[in-house]
Amino acid sequence: MRAVVAFLFILISTGDVLSQPTKENQSIRIRIAGGDVEATVSLHDTAASRDLVAMLPMTVTLKDHARTEKIAMLPKKLSTSGAPAGAHPSVGDFTYYAPWGNLAIFYKDFEYSSGLVSLGRVDSGLESLARLKGEAQVTIEAIDGVRP
Questions:
Q1: 31 contact partners, CB below 8 Å, separation of at least 6
Q2: pTM (two decimals)
């Protein structure tokens, strides 16, 4: 019993240290900017997100797709290692559609899509993305020098 109590005491007393964010588990943050578009995104720490961040900064062309999402083709495919077979996107999801090799930023909810990989969530600026008409050149860059 003493061993269990001692173990629990160690867990409780070190909990603050273990719960503090470290460089390894901090969210990767990016900015999408160009023309009337200004948005920030927090990425999940996944193989696909790390691949994306390794390509930054980059300039891509955003365009509307199905009046639901803004898409941009990437210069090369991202790793989908460890990713589920698909995702059910909702407003604000920042994703990668593996079959086409493009980013997809959802400004409307959509159905489950096989091959869709969640990269993160839009923190701010979703309205400016949704209002975008036609095509727009935007630059995607890491914020605060955070790199994987």
A1: 38, 39, 40, 41, 140, 141, 142, 143
A2: 0.80
